[in-house]
Design goal:
TIM Barrel, 8-stranded parallel beta barrel, 9 helices, globular
Length: 274
């Protein structure tokens, strides 16, 4: 049985102060069998290590470089898979939304709404997400300073919803790279909310001439360790059994068979810091 979203948010905020929670799953929902297999594996790992786990999967990919890029298997089909994963495994689930109408639609199926980094200043989207009553995870825009995210948070809070997360996912550096300023984690925590570090999208190599975003998955462990050391409340990691065959963002994702080893190290690191 999953807790009510208000209890879920409080539990995650409290847990994130002592350990860390994990938002993880594939970039996009490719099918029910794949989603269930990934969720089962991550739940088992997190259960063994005592890490609270939120399953993530995009039901639709709206921000693509090329028109022929994979965008999804169908909105309702993917949302129902997310709902089924949450119900079957007793897990909170999250997905990203892109328009006001999507906020109301997705909120019927998932527990936490995610605002993509490129859309973090879209007032109507933030207000619509807030009014669903679901916790809202806002990804920091690649073009914004950590301090500027205060105003995105206030849009949600002033719309009657105090259940807000912020996620650091790197800042644009030149045309084809991102950097993470770890000072941003405590700065954004000073707004009085949990801060998550996106360990996979922070390593994207955008604006490739091929029209397909690149990545540096070999650096995921480095970024994750630094995030834990900097005091992140949660980590965001996209993972897939075979990233080379993933239909979206395969260049960024961590192979699923490497997740347990990484989380084991991170749990030990967090314990040493307490």
């Amino acid at each position: 049985m999953k807790p009510a979203t208000s209890i879920l948010y409080k539990n995650l905020a409290d847990k994130g102060n002592q350990s860390f929670f994990l938002i993880a799953g594939p970039c996009a929902i490719e099918g029910e069998e794949m989603a269930f297999a990934i969720a089962k594996e991550i739940k088992n790992i997190c259960g063994e290590l005592g890490i609270p786990f939120i399953f993530k999967g995009s039901y639709r990919k709206a921000n693509r470089s090329r028109l022929d890029s994979f965008t999804g298997i169908g909105d309702l089909k993917a949302l129902k898979i997310l709902q089924a994963v949450g119900s079957h495994f007793g897990l909170p689930v999250t997905t990203d939304i892109h328009t006001e109408k999507e906020a109301e639609l997705a909120a019927r199926y998932v527990d936490i709404l995610q605002i993509p980094a490129f859309l973090c200043r879209q007032t109507n989207l933030l207000v619509a997400a807030a009014k669903t009553g679901k916790p809202v995870n806002i990804k920091k825009g690649q073009f914004l300073s950590p301090g500027a995210m205060k105003w995105a948070v206030e849009k949600v809070r002033q719309s009657g919803n105090g259940q807000v997360f912020l996620t650091e996912r790197g800042t644009t550096f030149g045309y084809q790279d991102l950097v993470v300023d770890f000072r941003g984690i405590p700065l954004m925590q000073s707004f009085g909310l949990p801060v998550v570090l996106d360990c996979t999208h922070s390593l994207q190599r955008p604006n490739q001439s091929s029209g397909v975003t690149g990545g540096q998955p070999m650096m995921i462990e480095t970024i994750a360790k630094a995030g834990i050391a900097a005091g992140a409340n949660g980590l965001f990691i996209e993972t897939h059994p075979n990233p080379a065959t993933a239909l979206s963002d395969g260049a960024n994702m961590l192979p699923l068979n490497q997740l347990k080893g990484l989380l084991t190290k991170l749990a030990k690191l967090k314990k040493a810091l307490l």
